[in-house]
Amino acid sequence: MKYEAVIGLEIHCELKTKTKIFCGCETGFGGDQNTHVCPVCLGLPGVLPTINKRVVEFGIKAGLATNCTINKFSKFDRKNYYYPDLPKNWQTSQYDLPIAEHGWVDIDVEGEKKRVRLTRIHMEEDAGKLVHSGNTIKDSASSNVDYNRTGVPLLEIVSEPDMHTAEEARTYMEKIKAIMEYIDVSNCRMEEGNLRADVNVSIRPVGSKELGTRTEMKNINSFKSLVDAIDYEIDRQTEVLEDGGHIVQETRTWDPNRGITLSMRSKEDAHDYRYMPEPDLPPIVTTDEQIEAYRKELPELPDARRERLEKEYGLSDYDAGVITASRPMAEYFDEVVAGGADAKLAANWIMGELAKHLNAENKTIVDSPVEPARLAAMIQMITKGTISSKIAKTVFEEMWTSKDAPEEIVKAKGLVQITDTKAIEEIVDKVIADNPKPVEDYKGGNKKAIGALVGQVMKQSKGKANPQMVNQLLAQKLG
């Protein structure tokens, strides 16, 4: 029997506020353990929380950016469960009246557009962090708890089970990450736990409409782990069913070192958490005027920006998609084009040489030593014919390690392209005289033989001859 996977994601997005959701403790990553804490976030008796207004603003903006309906009346609830990283023994979250619900985002997978529906977006506080003695909770003899993260504001973005492959899930999470970065509500640094996902996976016979029993994998914090964990879990569940077994509804953990999921505990349903309205926090009432004011503050979002780059500059759907996948890259591109560079060439250089150098040094585009203005100036030199694309790579290498302008590098190294027809003609004549075999092959009908002659001309001109002029002169002289 063939099976189809059904996948839903609960993405936890840590918000970039300066203080926690219900107290004034700082949210910065990397502080000494248990130093960013106070009686409120530690849940000591007699304390009263107060809502961070910025968290509500970010929740509404995230809802608007993902086509959600904003609930003008929403409230907080207590989600009751016991775990060592939860000092109050309940998590202040939202249950029946979240800040936003019924949204959607569009994703592109293998050239096909697909809509993934969002069930809801709700605000909640993060739990603390267990620091295990081993690699995972399953192979640890002991665990310590750091409460610095307790009370850090989160948005939980819950999708409908609309995805069927690991690739769709990865693309969806990348899209959510891009949107959160664009609207500037989160740093989305997965290595710091700013963005992580709980993944629900079930399988069912192809053609069936009934959902299978699902398992949940907690706290997946990289795109590679997301894909690997889903693929493994699909294979595991398929094997269980094909062997005549049944899937147990449970929470599992992903062990990246062994490449397998491991059972942690049986999966709870909503009623197991005994949700109750939070008595210490008033409901959140938002007016239409406030919602519209937040809508006006939203920047140009990835889909709109992608469409603009295609229409305004004629970029391909693929190129526009890559450029707009992150806000810093999209802004870098806009600055290069504003500096006078041809848009298509700008996209090629950003996706090509710049990306290659950034990846080699594990840098982001924000850390690029080549500023947009200098890249724009270099691209203009290619367009004017001052340098060839090949020479430009040498110039770019210099720009990467120095602050010199491309014009200065070209002048200092004598890299100006030769466009003098007479000078190129002299080299072409010499190459034709010195290479009778490819000349004979070309005249005998092997048009590809001209490539060897072009290579010789470029070599003798030290790469400075204009390649277009070289091809034209050779074609003329060889008839």
UniProtKB/TrEMBL annotation:
Enzyme class: ligase
InterPro entries in the cross-refs: Asn/Gln-tRNA_amidoTrfase_suB/E, Asn/Gln-tRNA_Trfase_suB/E_cat, Asn/Gln_amidotransferase, Asn/Gln_tRNA_amidoTrase-B-like, GatB, GatB_C_1, GatB_Yqey_C_2, Gln-tRNA_amidoTrfase_suB_CS
Key word Ligase present: yes
Keywords assigned: ATP-binding, Ligase, Nucleotide-binding, Protein biosynthesis, Transferase
GO molecular function, one term: asparaginyl-tRNA synthase (glutamine-hydrolyzing) activity
Residue intervals of the Asn/Gln amidotransferase domain: 331-478
Recorded catalytic activity of this chain's protein: L-aspartyl-tRNA(Asn) + L-glutamine + ATP + H2O = L-asparaginyl-tRNA(Asn) + L-glutamate + ADP + phosphate + 2 H(+); L-glutamyl-tRNA(Gln) + L-glutamine + ATP + H2O = L-glutaminyl-tRNA(Gln) + L-glutamate + ADP + phosphate + H(+)
Domain of life: Bacteria
Pfam assignment, any one: GatB_N
GO biological process, one term: glutaminyl-tRNAGln biosynthesis via transamidation
E.C. numbers: 6.3.5.-
PROSITE patterns named among the record's database cross-references: GATB (PS01234)
Biological role: Allows the formation of correctly charged Asn-tRNA(Asn) or Gln-tRNA(Gln) through the transamidation of misacylated Asp-tRNA(Asn) or Glu-tRNA(Gln) in organisms which lack either or both of asparaginyl-tRNA or glutaminyl-tRNA synthetases. The reaction takes place in the presence of glutamine and ATP through an activated phospho-Asp-tRNA(Asn) or phospho-Glu-tRNA(Gln).
Record note on quaternary structure: Heterotrimer of A, B and C subunits.
Listed NCBIfam families: gatB (TIGR00133), PRK05477.1-2 (NF004012), PRK05477.1-4 (NF004014)
Family recorded in the similarity comment: Belongs to the GatB/GatE family. GatB subfamily.
Record's protein name: Aspartyl/glutamyl-tRNA(Asn/Gln) amidotransferase subunit B
Organism lineage string: Bacteria, Bacillati, Bacillota, Negativicutes, Selenomonadales
Gene that encodes it: gatB
